[in-house]
Amino acid sequence: MKTTPQECAHEILDVVPTIIQTIRFEMRSLRLMDLTVPQFRTLAYVRRNPGASLSAAAEFIGLTLSSMSILVNGLVDRALVERVTSSQDRRRIRLTLTTEGEAMLESVLQGTEARLAEMVRHLSDAERAVVLHALQLFDLDAYIGRVTLGAAAGRVHVHRGMGQSKTLAGL
To answer: Is the pTM here over 0.85, yes or no?
Structure first.
């Protein structure tokens, strides 16, 4: 059975919003932590990117710099995130999770993961293996890792897997 990239993209656009909605619903039902989805996403981003800048977090979450600053202020006030000033440049602020932030994030992740596990429990082992394999193939962090800046300015080297790669100029 041959599947076109467009068919695959269509199915992703059809299924992923449902998964995201389920995750949001579960996070809202776990309000024991009193954590909003943007706060959760910020904690998760900082965990994956220790020392991230406020502007990098804002770009990832999709907030303006001023909105992200307000969000992070709230996380700092709750002792979930720490702002660390760079010793080389006092204007540079880096974000890190506190022990409390790590614990809260882990608790929310475990609760949400338990709900998602319930959702796939009805699948056979083989079907769950297919879902897992597909998600691993679609791992955006791995994809981003395959796209690297080339040596010359304006060139991007794209690694496509299976030994294929292409350098794009003029980007």
So the answer is: no
